[in-house]
Design goal:
167 residues, Fumarate Reductase Cytochrome B subunit, 4 helices, 2 strands, 2% strand
Length: 167
């Protein structure tokens, strides 16, 4: 539960910073936000790997009774979320590497570039990062809408079991 909410905060914050920073003129503030955005991406990547390992080791609670298509949609949305948890930060890291802007985590730990510096590759990777981030935002919106539907329409307790101090 803690990983869920921590990732939710980091991802929503990173999406918001990503949208905001791209509209800024070139300035020290914009560079600072880009660094924060990159750092958040690395943390999201590490926490996503941790969460995936936890999920593989621990069975999630059973879903409440619902039509089969809704259960399939929920499982599909979760698979899409997990795929995008990795695709978005990895595509951002690749784009940053290709553009020649290495990631120095928390201004202290240089991370390796995992693609060569290449203007052409950077131009290919930029929209990949952009559109996977929008896809993640869309799937998150569906996830939240589904949770709210279960809470307010179905009243089946699904949302309550994800709140701290509840079961």
């Amino acid at each position: 539960m803690a990983l869920h909410w921590l990732l939710a905060l980091l991802i929503v914050g990173s999406l918001a910073v990503g949208l905001y920073m791209t509209g800024l003129p070139f300035s020290p503030r914009r560079l600072q936000l880009y660094n924060w955005h990159k750092w958040a991406g690395v943390v999201i990547l590490v926490l996503s790997a941790t969460r995936l390992l936890w999920r593989l080791a621990q069975r999630p609670p059973a879903l409440p009774a619902m039509p089969a298509w809704q259960a399939r949609a929920a499982h599909g949305a979760h698979l899409a979320l997990y795929a995008l948890f990795f695709a978005v930060p990895l595509s951002g890291w690749a784009y940053s590497s290709a553009a020649g802007f290495p990631i120095v985590l928390f201004a202290a730990l240089p991370l390796p570039d995992w693609v060569p510096v290449s203007r052409e590759l950077a131009e290919l990777l930029k929209p990949v990062h952009h559109y996977t981030a929008y896809a993640l935002a869309a799937v998150i919106a569906l996830h939240v809408a589904g949770a709210l539907k279960h809470h307010f329409v179905d009243r089946d307790g699904l949302l309550l079991r994800m709140l701290p101090g509840r079961s």
